[in-house]
Amino acid sequence: DAGITQSPRHKVTETGTPVTLRCxxxxxxxxxxxxxxxxxxxLRLIHYSYGVKDTDKGEVSDGYSVSRSKTEDFLLTLExxxxxxxxxxxxxxxxxxxxxxxxxxxxxxxxxx
Amino acid sequence: DQQVKQNSPSLSVQEGRISILNCDxxxxxxxxxxxxxxxxxxxxxFLISISSIKDKNEDxxxxxxxxxxxxxxxxxxxxxxxxxxxxxxxxxxxxxGNQFYFGTGTSLTVIP
Lengths: 113, 112
Known about the structure:
Largest interface: A-B, 28 and 28 residues
Distance between the termini of chain A: 32 Å
Oligomer: heterodimer
Number of helices of chain A: 0
Mean pLDDT of chain A: 94
Largest sheet of chain A: 7 strands, mixed
Mean pLDDT of chain B: 95
Strand content of chain B: over 45%
Order of helices and strands of chain A: EEEEEEEEEEE
Radius of gyration of chain A: 13 Å
Structural class of chain A: mainly beta
């Protein structure tokens, strides 16, 4: 395992509720990513971070925000959850791009009712 | 627009035969390509990669081929085993960028 812990592993929440997912790494990697996986869409990037307090949007960032106040932690927040945000969310880390692989956590299954 | 494409959603292969999974990309700036394997209820796991300076990389039963002129890569699994049944994702990145781009995945079933 690449030393990535996602919490919670499962969550059910109601529409309109704020939700925060946590990713914790023990590898001291610079890059951290949040992806969502949906049938027919594969893995789509939500947000990523290239350092403490340095974040940027991915292709499906609407409705999500992130924060990285420490190297080891990357938080994903759904400000007001909607049913379209029901998905499996994966955190991933990398030492860099170009010749480095991305390593994933085991995911958080989020259901918005 | 999808920069990395896997046009076959599924593939079935007999045990012991070769599995060939294909992937196409559109961005000529990509210089590093990766394959991931995913089992249900688990995160994707890194399988094998190839740099754009090579056209082949081999690791045991897994070989990745890169055709830069065609912007195409393929993963060969020989011989296929039932434990290889999973969803396979290809991904691409560039040293000048910060992102990894993924295809939509191919579900491989190896029939005993």
